[in-house]
Known about the structure:
The structure holds 2 protein chains of 2 kinds. Chain A has one domain (79-350): Maltoporin, Chain A (Beta Barrel). Chain A is built from 1 helix and 17 strands. Chain A has one helix spanning 116-120, and strands at 2-7, 29-44, 49-65, 79-98, 101-112, 135-148, 152-173, 176-199, 202-216, 237-248, 256-266, 269-270, 293-294, 297-298, 301-311, 317-324, 343-350. Chain A starts with a strand and ends with a strand. Chain B is mainly β. In chain B, the strands form 7 sheets. Chain B has a 5-stranded antiparallel sheet with strand order 1-12-11-10-9, with no helix packed on it. A 5-stranded mixed sheet of chain B has the order 4-28-27-26-25, with no helix packed on it. Chain B has a 4-stranded antiparallel sheet with strand order 5-3-2-29. Chain B is globular. Chains A and B meet through strand 7, strand 8 and strand 13 of A and strand 5, strand 8 and strand 28 of B.
Amino acid sequence: xxxxxxxxxxxxxxxxxxxxxxxxxxxxxxxxxxxxxxxxxxxxxxxxxxxxxxxxxxxxxxxxxxxxxxxxxxxxxxxxxxxxxxxxxxxxxxxxxxxxxxxxxxxxxxxxxxxxxxxxxxxxxxxxxxxxxxxxxxxxxxxxxxxxxxxxxxxxxxxxxxxxxxxxxxxxxxxxxxxxxxxxxxxxxxxxxxxxxxxxxxxxxxxxxxxxxxxxxxxxxxxxxxxxxxxxxxxxxxxxxxxxxxxxxxxxxxxxxxxxxxxxxxxxxxxxxxxxxxxxxxxxxxxxxxxxxxxxxxxxxxxxxxxxxxxxxxxxxxxxxxxxxxxxxxxxxxxxxxxxxxxxxxxxxxxx
Amino acid sequence: xxxxxxxxxxxxxxxxxxxxxxxxxxxxxxxxxxxxxxxxxxxxxxxxxxxxxxxxxxxxxxxxxxxxxxxxxxxxxxxxxxxxxxxxxxxxxxxxxxxxxxxxxxxxxxxxxxxxxxxxxxxxxxxxxxxxxxxxxxxxxxxxxxxxxxxxxxxxxxxxxxxxxxxxxxxxxxxxxxxxxxxxxxxxxxxxxxxxxxxxxxxxxxxxxxxxxxxxxxxxxxxxxxxxxxxxxxxxxxxxxxxxxxxxxxxxxxxxxxxxxxxxxxxxxxxxxxxxxxxxxxxxxxxxxxxxxxxxxxxxxxxxxxxxxxxxxxxxxxxxxxxxxxxxxxxxxxxxxxxxxxxxxxxxxxxxxxxxxxxxxxxxxxxxxxxxxxxxxxxxxxxxxxxxxxxxxxxxxxxxxxxxxxxxxxxxxxxxxxxxxxxxxxxxxxxx
Lengths: 352, 432
């Protein structure tokens, strides 16, 4: 994968390169990212055992002006050229126990390179940081899948993650902020996925994820209470369930009608860090609510959607209708941004 | 000059009697129709502590109301603490707790009043919103329980009037003519404002800084002074008329945008004002503390503290005045701004007591060098105790120290072990 981006702009009232009339924003910031992957697949035991070893090479380089904060001229000394080369490796193993079941596991050591906007900032209140380092993480997973009678498939996975240098937006000197490598996070979780075709035209599906991602390695005395606290603004339990019907030749030869109802549940989560001992209790923390006085708690959310898609027999025209948030519940996005109430959507597409 | 005022009163504010007066006013606002009760018998005190839990742009944090002045180790993020945004500091007035940032939503500029009830519940109260794109929005000063002034970046040449009891805007004063008395034709002045960084009330007069800025970007008005002097308009509160414009000579960057208003009244009513200096990155240079005497409306030409005489490359960031002494922090080394600088999060700031008359300064014993108080006040007074905000880089100190004027030393009063770095403490009386 290759990414190559340049950015420049103009601000007639903005900063100038010291001793010149050169608008700092007119100086091009650059960002190049390349990710190379190489995998080796190997099969044994009549292909029951499959091993995949993958190496990834991450490379990025960025350049720009670092000190674009406050009302000051910048100099050539503020130009930065940052680059880095990183190796990642992943090992995955799958063993097919029977034709309808397998177990698999994986280990991964990887990086997340800084995104363009994290390096560049927005030149308003978020200033560039061309000294940002990639996030570094170790991931492990173990899963099992079984299919019963060709109609019922269930898959369970467990995972472990450990990430260092999480990139967060922090203030550097009011009113400016900058993305910096800040927190370390580790944790485990599991997800369950099921799909059941209980009649010729009807399928039930569902999945659920629970994760226990927590901060660690905080040594600053003022912040030590955050050790083992949940990662903020990150849900720790969410689930989906749905039923779908699928009929051919309903009104005409070769047409198709799918009708669906989907339900999503998002367990409460916290916009900012809260103390672990104030978290909800019960099995996996799924009962009640956190014992805090805060509107930064994003409450449990229930979302019900229903609709249909219809493909006319020509195959070129598709019609779709959906009612989202059928129950008109209060819904929030990350950062507690309100999401729409009940809404109606129609979609017509024509394939050329 | 256009004036739109509902009601004006002259009120002489004396710092020493302010808290008492506010306490009585609040009794008067009680629903109880009985004669005014003795505040000591019928009012319960709460000591409200705020902390900033994470050094991120939104300034998340907590507020807890304690029944007694905290001591020992304190957790400020328990189940009874209000969690919210904008807890880098506050600007209390009597029994009122005001912040320049909203609690419920991040990075929202304006004026919010926190509420505290007899059960010790702290809640976010009413909020006066303003232009959210210009720093300085929400800078305010209060005259009395019915009147205050604030600045809104949406109308930079006006000073807004509000009622702090109802938390509603009631009018404005258009001061465009006052601002344009100088520099109207200067092409290099790209932004003008009045009251963006400094609003103070003294002796029936409103004092408001006039911004003449050389930039008009997102950081307009900060470290970009056009003139070598800082101009302050003096407005008669009773009539709303502009009396005159005074100036602080040879300095820049008066006060700042945060809740820490960077001025204070001495016991005798003298007003002491911080200017942060002329360096374009806020690194000082000609930073001063100047004075307007109690019965005067001009900058005292006979007195100032110039940081250049104390610490080259330093600046003032806080002032507390009482009984002829100033308590402030002075950097022990040249300050450097920016992400890797020492200005905010290094232990370079040392507490000093400065005798106003002689300008003799003495380092306060028993207090380590601390980080920049920033939006928080460096020193406060509660229950006749002078308390110093002491937070160190490693967090080993994070609370308030009690200052003993007779020995010029301070001892640790309490330490916050959970909830973040301390950013404010204030005592309020709760009517029963």
